[in-house]
Amino acid sequence: MKKRTILLLIFLIASVALLTWWLLRPGKSSQPLSLSKSGNLPAPAQPAPPTAVHGLATAPATQATPLSSQPRHLFKSTNYPPQTAEEKAQWDWWRTMRKADPSFEWKMPIEFYGKVIDQFGAGVEAATVDLGWTTVIGPSPDPKKTILSGPDGRFSIAGIQGRCLSVSVRKEGYVDIGTNSIKSFEYAEFFDNHFYIPDPNGPVVFKLQKLMGAEPIYKFLPYGTITVGGAPLVLDVETGKISKQGDLACSVTIGPGRGDFDAADFTVMLEGLNGAGFRQSDEEFLFNAPESGYQNTLVLALKADDPNYRASQTLRFYVKTCSGKYAAAEVEVTLYGKLKSAGFSAIIYYNPSGSRNLEFDQNKWINR
After folding, report:
1. What domain range is 288 assigned to?
2. Coil/strand/helix, residue 343
3. What is the edge-to-edge ordering of all strands in the sheet holding 233-236?
């Protein structure tokens, strides 16, 4: 009986030892596999084989290269703190990446799609597109590249890495309108207002004004100061000078309303002198002055409690001078602190021939 008990005890001890060895055998993980809340945010520290992105082979995540640990779809989100599970997962990824590699932002894949069009909406072929991006990869810290737009005005770039991309377009015979033809795009900081999500079916549009036959034109840049509630500033449009006689008088008055930081109701008034007139326009290019429809005054009234209140206001209009010739003007009036004075500045394009053609070509700038 004792012998049977001893054999049974030996069998039980052996079984327990065998089970313990099975559970703790080499190669057996003690942690279960799991996914993040978004289901597509692999941890940067996990090894991964190289992955092709736009023709480039990316290094394993153990080298802190972000491409193998990037979410499948970054999306723009300015909410902070994050309000959804997807936003939180994206922020978690961001913090993890910065901890793993502080320079990861300059190693993001860059892909861009653009299109150049003229004022009629037609694609501009063979426009020169200048590209520049910031990166820590490669021999040059700020690489650059120049390409040409295709027959339909489209262009694209891919297969590069960096954080920000600047794009500018130009072409001989077209007017470069500055802010519309030069743009910047962010690829790392999804919370930035310039964060860009590539879309081949929705290219970023760049507009150039095609010159249709510019004539010699004067371009003036007058500026001065207006006394609030005092005598108006007078501008001679045909000479671009502020003087006692001219075509345009600008005055500023203050109303009863007051707001924070010296905000106040104010009114800007433009008056035509000696038969001169104005015609306000919201056209993007003031290139073709209308023959009629001019009025003697333009009034802009601002309220201090207006949510869109700004102390600086811009008026854009055509001018028919007192001698019957045409000009285009953009006037900016800025109310100064303490409400005693206002700054006046303008851009004037004046055609001395009497033609209504106000198209501007730098090569035909008379007083340059």
Report:
1. 218-364
2. strand
3. 241-242, 233-236, 248-258, 264-272, 297-302
Domain count, the chain: 3
Listed range (44-53, 192-201, 310-319, 356-365) with the worst mean pLDDT: 44-53
Q: Cα–Cα distance between 341 and 160 in angstroms, integer?
A: 52
What number of residues does the chain have? 368
Question: Do 77 and 191 meet the contact criterion of CB atoms below 8 Å apart?
Answer: yes
pLDDT band at 175 (very low <50, low <70, confident <90, very high): confident
Record the tokens describing residue 193, joined without a space: 């207002």
Query: Taking 50 as the threshold, does the pLDDT of residue 355 lie above it?
Result: yes
Model pTM greater than 0.90? no
Assess whether pLDDT exceeds 60 at residue 52. Answer: no
Residues 140 and 157 in one domain: yes
Would you call 17 helix, strand, or coil by DSSP? helix
Q: Rounded distance, CA 3 to CA 321, Å?
A: 126
Question: What is the mean pLDDT of the segment spanning 77-88?
Answer: 85
The verdict on 318 and 282 lying in the same domain is yes
- Quick one: 183 exposed, middle or buried, by C-beta within 10 A (0-12, 13-18, 19+)? middle
pLDDT (0 to 100) of residue 44? 41
Contact 48, 65 (CB under 8 A): no
Q: What is the mean pLDDT of residues 14-30?
A: 48
pLDDT reading at 237 higher than 50: yes
Instruction: Give the Å distances, CA to CA, from 330 to 141, 261, 285, 321.
Output: 40, 27, 11, 15
- Read off the pLDDT of each residue in 350-366 and give the average, rounded to a whole number: 93
Query: What's the gap between Cα 177 and its chain centre?
Result: 15
Nearest to 106, CA basis, from 133, 130, 131, 132: 133
Instruction: Judge contact between 169 and 148, C-beta under 8 A.
Output: no
Contact call for residues 308 and 259 (beta carbons, < 8 A): no
CA dihedral for 42, 47, 52, 56, sign (positive or negative):
positive
One domain, residues 312 and 198: no
